């Protein structure tokens, strides 16, 4: 049980070395772990990342490249990164995507301040408002925020 007041949860990259008594046992461990991961059907495998290099203290690229991207790579999560070029870039891009384009992603991640997160949320809500296949696809997209603004 997590205490009500305490340090915030922080994810970090960690490496754990296991020593197997034989190569056969090591291969069995790899197969078991791989099979367990394969059972995680809701685990995101492909994400669309919007990076706002202009937000706040302009740390979004540093946060992405130094912290988030290595974790995604180690987790073997594919991602496409879009650097926003102007206000509403993320919103407009998400709102105008075809349903099959959006369907290739299990989630959208905003790296930057709360503005780029809000743009992503509004873009996904616009997809829901379109109805039909657009609404169905947008309803299953997860939205995440990696703070990189002020």
UniProtKB/TrEMBL annotation:
Q: Where is the DAGKc domain?
A: 42-150
Its domain of life reads Eukaryota
Output one GO BP term. Answer: sphingolipid metabolic process
Stored InterPro entries: ATP-NAD_kinase_N, Diacylglycerol_kinase_cat_dom, Lipid_Phosphate_FormReg, NAD/diacylglycerol_kinase_sf
What the entry lists under SUPFAM superfamilies is as follows: NAD kinase/diacylglycerol kinase-like
Q: What molecular function terms (GO) are annotated for this protein?
A: kinase activity
- What are the annotated GO cellular component locations? membrane
Q: Which Pfam families match?
A: DAGK_cat (PF00781)
> How is this protein named in the record?
DAGKc domain-containing protein
């Amino acid at each position: 049980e997590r205490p009500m007041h305490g340090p915030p949860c922080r994810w970090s990259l960690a490496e754990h070395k296991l020593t197997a008594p034989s190569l056969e046992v090591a291969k069995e461990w790899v197969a078991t772990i791989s099979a367990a991961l394969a059972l995680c059907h809701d685990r995101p495998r492909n994400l669309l990342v919007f990076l706002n290099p202009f937000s706040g203290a302009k740390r979004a690229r540093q946060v992405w490249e130094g912290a988030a991207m290595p974790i995604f790579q180690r987790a073997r999560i594919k991602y496409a990164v879009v650097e926003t070029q102007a206000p509403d870039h993320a919103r407009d891009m998400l709102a105008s995507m075809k349903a099959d384009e959006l369907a290739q992603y299990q989630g959208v991640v905003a790296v930057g301040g709360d503005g780029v997160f809000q743009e992503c949320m509004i873009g996904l809500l616009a997809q829901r408002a379109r109805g039909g296949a657009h609404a169905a696809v947008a309803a299953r997209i997860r939205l995440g925020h990696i703070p990189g603004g002020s």
